[in-house]
Design goal:
alpha+beta; Arc Repressor Mutant, subunit A; three-stranded antiparallel sheet; 5 helices; 58% helix; WH-like_DNA-bd_sf; ArsR-like_HTH; HTH_ArsR_DNA-bd_dom; DNA-binding transcription factor activity; Helix-turn-helix transcriptional regulator
Length: 112
């Protein structure tokens, strides 16, 4: 997992912003133009484009320009980095709580 830390850091930073999470959620329904997406958020287009660049730089979305229209699409595979990290953390904590439960239900002095 350590070899993915730079990539994971970038994805987590990108997802830390509610606007960017909103873009990801909307793109989960399918590709949309930047203009359509920007219209749903209370900010200027240049400010919205900064969010698009962060998402694209970190591989969460891809954009394609046809004429004057830039279309964004979700790259769901990139979200697997977060999913894998969370699964690993969940496994670590489940192992710890299982050991604690075992220690509490079967203390060492009772095992003798």
């Amino acid at each position: 997992m350590a070899q993915y830390s730079t990539e994971l850091d970038g994805v987590l930073v990108a997802l830390a912003d509610p606007t960017r999470r909103g873009v990801i959620r909307r793109l989960g329904r399918g590709p949309r133009s930047v203009g359509d997406l920007a219209g749903e958020f209370p900010m200027t287009l240049p400010s919205f484009m900064k969010h698009v660049r962060v998402l694209e730089t970190n591989g969460l979305i891809s954009t394609v320009k046809h004429g004057r229209v830039r279309t964004c699409a979700l790259r769901p595979g990139r979200l697997a980095l977060v999913d894998d990290w969370l699964a690993e953390q969940r496994r670590i904590w489940e192992d710890r709580t299982d050991r604690l439960e075992h220690l509490l239900t079967d203390p060492p002095e009772e095992r003798r």
